[in-house]
């Protein structure tokens, strides 16, 4: 093969390589853009999971105390595919278990965690809701325990905040507590009273 043909082949190879890289980046950014439209909702299911059949101690919970929360992610757009992505969020409680084998939750540092898909992830179907039941350490007592501004990443794409969490209105992504859900024990009667006395009306409480 002469020098001209070699140079031409090299140029073609480089061109297609750049096109492939650009397309890959666009795909990653498209995934992030789609993930940023997911509607997030937190719902406290059980603040005293140890009293209701959960072996919190076996999960590694301090004081053998844990809570159960349902995270729902609703996709109102087109199907979201792929497994090269992560959604980052803050949780003041350590996540001990995830009861959906399509996802993992990893603690990174401080209160920062991330949700990632497993090999079993089947995508976020269009116009459907995915439930991710999690078990966390200790209790969830206040609306402010559930923090806003989750963000999505994928490869080298620019991270993007999930719009449904980009707010100071906690009720936009949190189902209010009902009844005595906030109680740490069946007879607990002072957790939120003490909080009110210390902080007054500056803090938003569920219930």
Automatic annotation (TrEMBL):
GO terms for molecular function: hydrolase activity, hydrolyzing O-glycosyl compounds; polysaccharide binding. Pfam families: CHB_HEX. The keyword Hydrolase applies. Keywords: Glycosidase, Hydrolase. Gene3D superfamilies: 2.60.40.290. It comes from the Bacteria. The keyword Transmembrane does not apply. Residues 36-198 form the Chitobiase/beta-hexosaminidases N-terminal domain. This is N-acetyl-beta-glucosaminidase. It comes from Yersinia pestis.
